[in-house]
Specification:
Largest sheet: 4 strands, mixed
Number of strands: 4
Radius of gyration: 16 Å
Strand order of the largest sheet: 1-2-4-3
Mean pLDDT: 85
Number of helices: 3
Helix content: 25-40%
Distance between the termini: 39 Å
Structural class: alpha+beta
Low-confidence stretches: none
Amino acid sequence: MPRERRLTKSSDFGALRAENRSWSDRLLVLRVKRNGLGVSRAGFSVGKRIGNAVTRNRAKRRMREAVRLTPVQQGWDFVFIARNGVVEADFKEICSSVESLLKRAGLLARAPAPPPGEAGIP
């Protein structure tokens, strides 16, 4: 994930923490805020109670890849916060959790419509 698409500053994470818009499931918590930029930026938070450094970094890598594979609307900052279940979950479950939370938040980008004549209809 390129640097311009990541939240890196503590102040950015703090602004999202102050925002009251959040959604959650058994694996992740999603917090969102409009950023006024032409690009969406993602941040990932995994607390020490999840496990040691190796476990936390693995969880972040898996969440980052799940977000990279999911189409997201532009102009938003969002943070995924890991819950205890993320360690035991397989990658498919994490992808499903990311997609469902983004859908509930209304941030999933719609797939572009196929050009006329290419919709599979003769």
